[in-house]
Fold each of these.
Amino acid sequence: MRSTLSPISLAARRFGVAALVVSATVMLAACEEAATGTNAGLARASHPISPEMVALMQKKGVALNAPVLIRTFKKEAEFEVWKMKPDGRYTLLRTYPMCRWSGQLGPKVREGDRQVPEGFYKITPGQMNPNSNYYLAFNVGYPNAYDRAWGHEGGSIMVHGACSSSGCFSMTDQQIDEIYALARDGFAGGQQAIQMQSYPFHMTAENMARYRLDPNIGFWKQLKEGADHFEVTQQDVRAGVCAKHYVFDAVPADGSHFEATEACPPLKRDPGVEADVAAKQKQDEAKAAELVATGLPAIRTIYADGGQNQAFAAANLVDVSRPEAVAAGPTDWLVEPKGKKVSPVVKVAANQAATKAAKESMTTSGKNPGAPGTAVASNQPPAATSQSPMAVAPVAQASAAPAVTAPPAAKTGDWSSNLTAALFAK
């Protein structure tokens, strides 16, 4: 919630934020190789909010320095910025098409895996970097308590410009200029931390049904619970970690603190919020069950190396990272329950139904698939390579679909076997 500050303390707060901007050091990471000149960085970091954005905020009924919240969706390649209204609830200010993200759907596990993290993160004034080699940047706060509890490694994951990603959320320079200014002004208004919610995709009933057999589904169900809390309250979601598991909008009933790797203590929650969240979850679960019952196939989406919002398909960007991977687009592999036998006729029908459903979904919802084209493949995914978590084979045509099988078992030590073991160890 927004802090209440006296004029003197507010002025001091603003001075402190300015000092952080001036003294920010270079944060080295896969996306951060070096710093630009200090003067250039400070000039960019001081750009005012555009008149067009000021007009939009006035239309939305939010103040220039109102608190900010961020949500990102990898599959759709969307970056949402929300601003808090006077009543303490957030309203969606703008959805930016994400210029580049790398890796696969699923959490970041180790340094160098090119994965963009998923989860709930905090951005503080000290994480703002005006001296980025990628125009402007801020650190998202990976790893968080959940990541550390699972032994996930790496760090200094950024939101930055330049449309180049090796584990970061990459925007265009023009986009990050505006996003950075919105965050800066939120801090100037007294906000202590910006919540960033990073998701694999929009956490809809349809997506949960489609990815029901993905190795990450246990983790994604946790993220959906957090997303449901935000959808219900439109407020910052209190994200705690205990028993190596997220808990949302809850505090220890005995006044103690959460320990990420220890058993969860008795929890205290808001009964009204919990009732509303439970009702939403029940509705979504019923919808997902209906979709599965009517034949919605289970899929697993594989990328050459991440994606890009389709809004950039005709932009001819010069500096985009790994353009060949963007051009390849994602491939949806049909997945069968282990041990279940499916006739070739049913497999071909499922393949064709998945293709039709994907096209209808994009037509009716207006959402893009997050890349220049989404194909439904019906042969086995290829083995992982050292260059990407999972390479993409040439797309198989639905009309010539051979037998569909689940993705092959991962070799010991690769990203999917380690992640599956971690997620389902309990």
Note: The CA atoms of residues 357 and 370 lie 16 Å apart.
Amino acid sequence: MVTLNLSHSAKMAFELIFKQPGTSRSDLVTLLSSTPTTVTRLLASMESQQLIDEQADKSGRRGPPIKQLFIRKGALYSAGINFTHNRLEVALVNFDGSWLDSHSEKIKKPTAEQIEDHALHALNDLLSKHNISKKSLIGIGVSVPGDFMADGHTITAHSYFPALKNLDIEKHFKQFFKLPIYIENDANCSALCELLAGVGRDKREFLSLYIGYGVSSGLAINHKLYRGQHGNAGLIGVQFPSFVNIRPSGQNLLEFLNRQDIHAKGFSELGKLYEENCEDINMWLDRAAAQLQEKLYQIARLLDLQAIIVGGRLPLNILQHLAKSVNAKTFAPVEDLLPYSEIVCTEMGARAGVYGAALIPIYRECFLHTD
């Protein structure tokens, strides 16, 4: 098991190099408001732990080559777990946040024990495939379909996951895996993926809309994941109560199709139905876009967001349709002359959840954050 214990200054440097690969020493001096001597000492400490690489810029410019700083890609690794009611995925990412590989398999029931057993099998397969020691893992991030109770550990899971209700999943997984475990809800994992590896990398503030079993979102403010007091910031689903038959959630889409005698077992099957120009999916999407437009406009005005990223468990082609519809000219009233949020679609598709989960250990251990 890896213990990093990075100092405040080292975390600042790590985050800058992570977000701006190729940063020079002189850049760090400026960005950290520090001195060359202090930065040299700081980098020497990080190099002694083999966390960073320094490479000469070979762009052909005159004068001595500028040394560029990079996070050492294979220094350490991080794993992520993401699951639905019938499928589980485990991903590995490199220390610089780049995607390495993933493994997906079916599960019979989404109990903690089933998830643990299948995740351990998948993780061991990935580690063996890439010849990686388990000792090189910083930890495991787990994306959960629920939200946190007051203790910040116990989750109130979606109705599809009754076995996880009121479970301290972090404690449960730590005892099983014997590794550091980091828990976030699905929406926050997706938002973290966009923040560190997706279309949110260059955006200061954004809302990451997450269409899963329910409808929720994650928030990034000042280039940081904003979790709120209990880790539940972004619960926009309260604007679409679960007791209402019509709401823009993935579960609602599956139930709507089922009533039309179109039986999809899971989200992954919806992409093919959409490609076949299923009229019922298009009808649902038009309705969902209209619902989301009103509420997202209000949120965008409240927070003055730079962007709203449309994502979630639905297939990418459906998310792209939804983003385009929400981004119609009717998003803001004609009389509203103020600038409004850019609406963009994720480029990750459903992979954002497991990718974000795998990034949690790096974010928690190596970045400065306020929670």
Note: The chain has eleven helices and 16 strands.
